[in-house]
Each structure stands twice: as structure tokens, then as C-alpha cells.
Task: structure prediction
Amino acid sequence: RKEVEQDPGPFNVPEGATVAFNCTYSNSASQSFFWYRQDCRKEPKLLMSVYSSGNEDGRFTAQLNRASQYISLLIRDSKLSDSATYLCVVNGITGGGNKLTFGTGTQLKVEL
Amino acid sequence: EPEVTQTPSHQVTQMGQEVILRCVPISNHLYFYWYRQILGQKVEFLVSFYNNEISEKSEIFDDQFSVERPDGSNFTLKIRSTKLEDSAMYFCASSAGTSGTQGQYFGPGTRLTVL
Result:
């Protein structure tokens, strides 16, 4: 089983749509969780941390289910500028405190 | 907004040559990292560095790789004898504390091409 698994997509959605991405991770001892965004040939940019209670930042909502080892990201009212690859990232998957383990990413294309 | 910077943006080298990739982490950050991303693949952890020593490294980070913080601002990755398979984008990152809920902040990367 992959350490962090994501559906690669692409997800092609019209502007204004709501889209959800899912991710699973293999190690129940993992410590913290993030969504990063990566534009083509650019660096990963931190989008948001993911908390067990769920958290929201504007149009973005992240959820964590530790029992199922499952992380989600919901984007409401998608914009053209949301087109990017969304990376599910887990910290401490091998017990180390600072090693980020990345999924392969889910590609989102928002269209007119 | 403070950011991580990296130089050069693109480095082309011949197989067997040594390269040094440079990074300036965010100034009040204490933890530094190198990751790499081979074209079309996922981002992979190489090494973490804290208090002037390596705190963790991956299997990729073999004896050909080394890191150094030569002064109070720079953080470097050296590849002693480059191989074709070292061609990748190398990202430097930093964090204020252990990543916890803060995450790590990435520089724009150095694209290394080994011929």
C-alpha cells in the first residue's frame, strides 16, 4: 500500500462548481496533515493544515478521519485560478517528526 | 511576506561533476530541508537539518550527497559526483518549529539537468 494515496485525476469542472478530493495514508501513527497546491513546474505551496475537527479557510474545507486514515479537501465555488495539482501531505509517517510524505497529487482543471 | 529563495534556478552539469545548490531559508526558521521531484513524479524527502546537524535522511540521500549551513543565512546541498538519474527539481524548505501544524515553506526550486 502506498504511504499516501490520491486519485490522480484530472478533475475537469466548470467555474463555480464544488469539487472534493480524497486521500488515504498508510500509517496510523502519522502526526500531522496538510494540503499543498502545486502549479506546473513550480514549488508546492501550503494551502492549509488539516485538523481532526475539520477546518475551513474561505472556499476551502479540509477534513481528517484518523480512524479511517482518510483526508479530504472540498473546494466550493471554484475559480479558474484554482486550476493546479493538489497534494495530500503527511508528516511523521515513519515516526520522524519533520519528514513530509507527499501523495502524487490530484490535478484540477477549472473551465469556463 | 518572507520566503525561501534558491539559486541557481537552473543548473546544467556533466555527469560526474560536483554541484552545489544554494538556499536561503526564511530568517527566523530553525529547521531546514531538501526535497526533490523528478519530472512527472511526486515530491520526495531527502534530508532534514536542525541545530547544525542532519536530523533525518532518506535512502536517496547517500554518500554522494551532503548538506551544510556555512553561515547564518545559507543552506546548501552538494552532490559530489552527479549521475543522470540526479536530474530533477530540487526544493529547499524551512519551518519555524517541528512541522506540526505549521507545515514547511518551499523555495522556487533549482532544476538540475545532468548530461
